[in-house]
From TrEMBL:
Family, similarity comment: Belongs to the binding-protein-dependent transport system permease family.
Name this polypeptide is given: Glutamine abc transporter, periplasmic glutamine-binding protein
Gene source species: Liquorilactobacillus sucicola DSM 21376 = JCM 15457
Subcellular location: Cell membrane
Domain of life according to the entry: Bacteria
Length: 231
C-alpha cells in the first residue's frame, strides 16, 4: 500500500440486487449504473475502489461502524440520513412507487386494509410505507433484498411492495411479473454516502469526478447503457 500512497484504495459497500444500479451479470460480475459511475469517477480522480456487494442495510451499517469508507447503492439522500452521513452531490432522481402482481385489482392504499405488504429492510421506501401503515391498516413483512421482496408479491404471500421508481420500472421491463399502480411519491435523489465529518477528501474527489464525467458525456453514456432515455 505505501508504495502506491498516491492511489488510495477505498472500500465501497453496495447492494446485491438493485438493478439497474448494482447487480450481478450473467458472468457473476457486479455491474450497473452505480458501479460504472464509481469506477469512472475513481479513474478520473486517481483513486482505487474495492466494491463490496454486501446488501443495502449491511452496507449502511458497515459505514456507520466505520468498516467501509462509503456506500454507493442507490441510496436516497434523506434528512434522517444526513444526520448520520455526508452525501455527495445528487446523481440520480428517484421516488417511491407501490407495485402489485400483474393480475391484481389493487390500485390504491385504501385497498391494502388488513393485507400484508412486503418491504426491504432499511430502505427509504420501507420508511415511507411504514408511515402509511396506521392510516391504511396494512401489515408489513421485511426482507433483506429486493428479489425476496418481489417474490413475496409474485407468489401472492404479500399483496404489494414499495420500491424506488427507476428500480421497479427496470425490473418490470426485464420480466418481473409486477405492475406499478401509484405515481412516484416523495421524489428525491441518490447520493454517494460517507461517514459524517470523517471523509471530506473522498467526497470532494467524488463530486469533482462526477462533474467531469457529466461534462464529458461519460455519465450519460453509462446511464444509457442500462436505461433508454424514455425510462
Ligand atoms: N433507494 C433506497 C433507499 O435509499 C434503497 C436502496 C437499496 O435498496 N439499495 O433506501
Amino acid at each position: 500500500m505505501p508504495a502506491h500512497a498516491a492511489e488510495k484504495t477505498y472500500q465501497i459497500g453496495t447492494d446485491v440486487t438493485y438493478p439497474p444500479f448494482e447487480f450481478a451479470n450473467s458472468n457473476n460480475k457486479y455491474v450497473g449504473i452505480d458501479i460504472d459511475l464509481m469506477n469512472a469517477i475513481a479513474k478520473t480522480e486517481n483513486f482505487k475502489v474495492n466494491i463490496k456487494a454486501i446488501g443495502f442495510n449491511a452496507a449502511v451499517q458497515a459505514l456507520q461502524s466505520g468498516q467501509i469508507d462509503g456506500v454507493m447503492a442507490g441510496m436516497a439522500i434523506t434528512p434522517e440520513r444526513q444526520e448520520k452521513f455526508d452525501f455527495s452531490d445528487p446523481y440520480y432522481k428517484t421516488g417511491f412507487v407501490m407495485a402489485v402482481a400483474k393480475n391484481s385489482h389493487i390500485r390504491n392504499f385504501k385497498q391494502l386494509r388488513g393485507k400484508r405488504v412486503a418491504l426491504k429492510t432499511g430502505t427509504a421506501a420501507a420508511a415511507y410505507a411504514e408511515s402509511l401503515k396506521a392510516k391504511y391498516g396494512f401489515r408489513t413483512v421485511i426482507f433483506d433484498d429486493s428479489d425476496n421482496m418481489y417474490n413475496d408479491v409474485t407468489t401472492g404471500n404479500s399483496i404489494a411492495c414499495f420500491e424506488d421508481n427507476p428500480v421497479m420500472q427496470y425490473a418490470i421491463k426485464t420480466g418481473l411479473k409486477l405492475k406499478i399502480v401509484t405515481k412516484p411519491a416523495q421524489g428525491g435523489h441518490y447520493g454517494f454516502a460517507v461517514m459524517k465529518g470523517q471523509n471530506q477528501e473522498l467526497l470532494t474527489k467524488f463530486n469533482a469526478g462526477l462533474r467531469k464525467i457529466k461534462k464529458n458525456g461519460q455519465y450519460n453514456k453509462i446511464v444509457n447503457t442500462y436505461l433508454d432515455n424514455s425510462a
